[in-house]
């Protein structure tokens, strides 16, 4: 563990290495500070150093600091840096994205927001809402369509309403802006002929253009006027989206000054990273938080030249407004010492970005942002960036592949090479070229789950089951496709023969009926061989059709992946973790939808998924390929914040940049909506993006474009290439590859590729999961029981539906939670009828988890159990309680801990922790026992009790002390008695569990979870053995694991 002295020494070491401007930014602790930090100038370092300085030199606590970042990845990276400065206290500093910060405010003040019954809307529900909205358009509505894609406006409306929320625009504001804009059109030069043209005289109106713009504005008006109805539909469903959270907090802060003052007093120092990327509402939130002081301790860092997220609501003008608002007291620090790139690279970048007009240097007098190389190791590196012109895209990819191969041969580490492009398709193609030379790659892509092959196959099965349940024997075409799915292992020629046989049958018979008869027929003779996989495929599909009306959607999905053999196929596949990630994401999606809508039918689910696919509504999944040790492939947007010794910036053609066709649709806002007229343009936004890509390079920069497409059509380089050349900072080099090399390379493409290493994929996949892992008692128990169980359930998280018993237990917990919440609100317990009602409501809401018979049985049992339980304890319950308490940000022995406690009973500051248990108490006896010869690690319940004491006792936000832990068995024992078991916790118990926590944490971080417990009754050990996975799982080399990490 790092001591305070070591932390301070580390801070002083980092501080001493800062330049004068950076020190100025770190040292100015009081008052408003704006840091304009160009690429490679060390802004991330000064944010961490400033927080360290605040904590080392002021009386402020970590809890008094709020740091707002733009992405989840930014919050993780910031905390990792802080740990070096301040150790485990880094977990106490409030580091948030804007959305997570607002969510915390709402969760901490639910009674004020009155949002406890609302849930975030899912993509499927969102589609339903917009479908209902569009279905409700009256006749002659400007957006109503009667043929073709009648739901064409879904994406346009989603984008519009999101922008309205992000910018705080309402219907009246936009309508007023439209009116004034249309009224002003005749006064604008662009709508008036400036000279005589054909039959028009100078000064005549361009009526056709006015009519066209008017039509667009009226469509915008029609769309905007649907906003209030959209809000009503959302409220009717008790749903919200993430943009709503910021609006709610803003409204609450404006209406409840006490609430605002509470947070203003708590956060004495506020830091905002990537300030150029904040939206209007995000900026308003910051303004409210700092409005309490005339000279707020607010520190914003950004670079207007790297504002590349305007499509997500980012507003570059926020930096200019901030400078204006605090012009009297503002300390402006400009970081111009660049530690990343050589001067020739910086010169090329400057030549480009200087052409933009929307820059702070052109608005704030005396501001200079001319970057100079400050890295001593780079001062004498004078290699100029090269612009490479290739005959075709094919040649461009071959040329880059060969250059990369040569660099690696010369000793350059693959991870020090970055390849940047505008569109993902370049990365997909280039990775195939690189794989031919066995060059390792690393890439991250945002995928749509609905477009992925495995998900599409499962959707096909769902579609088939839905159709066959509605109209039997109606989907032979889909059945023919399903029989080709590789997990069935049916030879395709056999499927073709069967289909032809059925086609020749007279009278006609369906393929399904024919195959059902076929698999039930006895062999014709001793030499007849059954078609491999056919019996399994047809019998499993027939069983699934029978399951549709009899099981829940969750159970149906579970049956599909197990009965059809999908899970076994995945676990034996070399890309199993990618497939598992995809399967889990899709499973979680369906589980979430059935949680939200227990009556959701298979037919309705299939219908909505089909609509989502048609309208290209995404179910997002981040796909990570390879490890960071490989050559990095990324889009220009994805390159922000990264740096590489060698950068290949490819595909710099106008077709992919300034001349790329934009998708149709969308609404353009009238400029009268804005207080000041922004000079921003798509061209300036693209130029900033190009600039970001250029400035990723440290020493060597290669910019390339091609002269012809693969189809032979000529294409021109981007205008940005010409702008770079304008100041003679780089010259174009024609690259002509040897025909023999091109031929050899083309031949290689037809050879079989080598399969990737399973072990490396496992290590890379697990590493990014571990970055987000926080120790909890379930994970601890699972690991001590069997490391493989921990691996599958807590890391891989193999999907599984809730069992009948688990859901029943959840219903009991929910009923008791609401029962005590009523007592806390009303200061008296409700009636036993209310307790039963709470249980019944949960059961009905989650009816999907039960068959009709299970539901009836569990409902009757629960009603009886709860009434008798209340009778046994109602006069004995402590009324001074906290219920369903989430405890986070606790650090013990440098291990982050979290937990959710059912109930805390108080006697002053002394606490009795209560955990409800359902099930047979007789079967739980061993789980309550401390360590002994039979159970060297102790029972799960005993460990849970001790873990909760450690958690609560170290929860520094409250001065609580656990004196006892109690397991309250809500179901009676065999003699109909209700029992509670109290665990008496000793100091020795605490020490044992602390050691278990530390030991398990260290083993997890060392990836020591690939070997199971070996017990015969262990489900996961048997699973690994039966699927012949044990070799690949147990023989991983620690050094290989260490060298194959990746992050999202």
Give the SSE map.
Blueprint: H1 4-16, H2 20-27, E1 33-37, H3 43-57, E2 65-69, H4 72-86, E3 94-97, H5 98-108, H6 110-113, E4 119-120, H7 123-135, H8 154-167, H9 171-184, H10 207-224, H11 227-236, E5 239-240, H12 242-255, H13 257-266, E6 269-272, H14 280-290, E7 298-302, H15 317-325, E8 331-335, E9 337-338, H16 343-353, E10 372-373, E11 386-392, H17 393-409, E12 417-421, H18 424-436, E13 441-448, H19 453-470, H20 476-482, H21 492-504, H22 511-520, H23 534-547, H24 553-563, H25 566-571, H26 576-596, H27 602-614, E14 620-625, E15 631-635, E16 644-649, H28 682-694, E17 697-708, H29 719-726, E18 732-734, H30 739-748, H31 758-770, H32 777-785, H33 787-796, H34 804-826, H35 832-845, H36 852-873, E19 881-892, E20 895-907, E21 910-917, H37 940-953, E22 961-969, E23 980-983, H38 987-1005, H39 1019-1026, H40 1030-1034, H41 1038-1042
Parallel strand pairs: 1-7, 1-8, 2-3, 2-6, 4-5, 6-7, 9-10, 11-17, 11-18, 12-15, 12-16, 13-15, 16-17, 21-22
Antiparallel strand pairs: 13-14, 19-20, 20-21, 22-23
Helix pairs in contact: 1-3, 2-3, 3-4, 5-12, 7-11, 7-27, 9-10, 12-13, 12-14, 16-28, 16-29, 17-18, 19-23, 19-27, 22-23, 23-24, 32-33, 34-35, 35-36, 37-38
